[in-house]
Amino acid sequence: MKVRMSYGEKIFQVVNYIILSFIVLVCLYPMWHVAMASFSDSNQLMSQSGFLLKPLGFNLQAYVKVFQNPMILKGYANTLFILVVGVILDLIMTALAAYFFSRKDVMLKKPLMLLILFTMFFSGGMIPFYLTLKDLHMINSRWGLIIPFMISTYNMIILRTSFESIPDSLTEAAKIDGAGHMTILFRIILPLSKAILGTLAIQQIIAIWNDIVWPTITISDPKLWTISAGLFRQFSGQYATNTPVQFAGYILASLPLILLFTFANKFYIEGLTSAGLKL
What is 59-95 written as a DSSP string? Predict the structure, then answer.
């Protein structure tokens, strides 16, 4: 049975579509502008003002210059190394902490959890953090971008909540069969938490890939630059007057994340939904 909308509901729907369409255009146009500018001639682009709907003097010279720059491949390699190692270590450390705090028989559980929550709101600051890494000889090292961020309090709380929703009967049956905590975690708990683990992995990938402040501060060796730090340090100076080259670099740096979100969007939403229901 088709429900007929009232006149007011029709007006609301039309206005709603107009507003949402405007928001979509506002969000998409900057990306369209960057894409069109990357295919444009530098001189024509500098003299142009206003909206850019198509390339000005279409050419691929900007992308040729980007690929000729050795920093791009080195930046990709460094970022992928930090990303793969960092995400794996982050998931392992976060899962271990989440499992510990999800158990009901843990001593001093609440005081320890409060101490960890305290770090979400207060920290020593960037300068003490930097000096600590300097004393540990992690400046100008890929490990300086991995080890300090191996665990996230926010992710740990989400994963702990997910673990707590798993029936105790499963873990109790495993204990009766002689399973230890590591067996229970890696054979029972984690396989049942694939959706939320995938969501946390995607969030960590985005955080590592987009991080520009910390790599810029701690890495001065061009051979160790991440893709974001390399673009910021080199392209903003070397190609300061060549906007198409800068935009081409930004597009190539953003492409992996765009592809990731395109193909993993379904799993990301499923993980967020399951986590939301369990919270």
Answer: --HHHHHHHHSHHHHHHHHHHHHHHHHHHHHHHHHHH
Q: Which two three-digit tokens encode residue 102?
A: 């999800």
Q: Return d(Cα 206, Cα 222) in angstroms, integer.
A: 22
Query: Tokens for 163?
Result: 């673990």
The structure tokens listed for 129 are: 């953090």
- pLDDT, tens digit only, all 279 positions of the chain: 566 777 778 888 899 999 999 999 999 898 898 889 888 888 888 877 778 888 888 888 888 888 888 888 888 899 999 999 999 999 999 999 999 888 888 888 888 888 888 888 887 778 888 888 888 888 888 898 898 888 888 888 888 888 888 888 888 888 888 888 888 888 888 888 888 888 888 888 888 888 888 888 888 888 888 888 888 887 777 777 778 888 888 888 888 888 888 887 777 777 766 655 444
Q: Note the pTM of the prediction, 2 decimals.
A: 0.81
Using alpha carbons only, what angle is made at residue 268 by residues 266 and 272, rounded to the nearest 5 degrees? 120
Half-sphere exposure of 41 (CA within 13 A, CB side): 7
Of the candidates 208, 236, 222, 239, the one whose C-alpha atom is nearest the C-alpha of residue 74 is 222
Given a contact cutoff of 8 angstroms between Cβ atoms, the answer to whether 191 and 127 are in contact is no
User: Contact at 8 Å (CB) between 36 and 53?
Assistant: yes
CB atoms within 10 A of CB 179: 15
Closest CA to 194 of 104, 91, 82, 100: 91
To the nearest 5 percent, what fractions of the chain are helix, strand and coil? 75, 0, 25
Report helix, strand or coil for 187: helix
Length of the chain in residues, anyone? 279
Span between the terminal Cα atoms of the chain, in Å: 37
